[in-house]
């Protein structure tokens, strides 16, 4: 992975719903890494999906100074556990406050849980509408991360935390054509601030 690619990780208090066996361990794992979250979002219906049962939590930048970004993370995507015990949660790190990211992460988690989808390095999830109001990004790119937060292992399951990156439709096309490394190189060449949630499309 390029050195310039940050280990991004990307939304009030915990709530109780019909929780899966991974939920509380995931919460405890987050708290051990970054402390109590500052905010918690419970998207009932976001732009593309509805009924996400979990939440998206967030920490202020002063608690994540080692990363230089504000962190948003999901609790509930790991409801789906594959036959080999693999489950996923998503973290997104951005340069500034952007509550709308909670909608995008909720959409991503809902698609994975509802459809029983596995996630891997480079998995891309595209939606018919923008990820949140005010952005033109319509897809999430999932990347494996190193050093941001460790894999969580439990009895019969393990949760991997993927870096979820909001992207534009043309960036999805670049990734499909040239692979993840090709997209990263394109970002580098074009000095793309991919960690900026308020970025606008880049020509080329």
UniProtKB/TrEMBL annotation:
Supply the InterPro entries for this chain. Answer: SUFU-like_domain (IPR020941)
Domain Suppressor of fused-like residues, every copy: 68-199
Protein name, per record = Suppressor of fused-like domain-containing protein
Organism, as annotated: Virgisporangium ochraceum
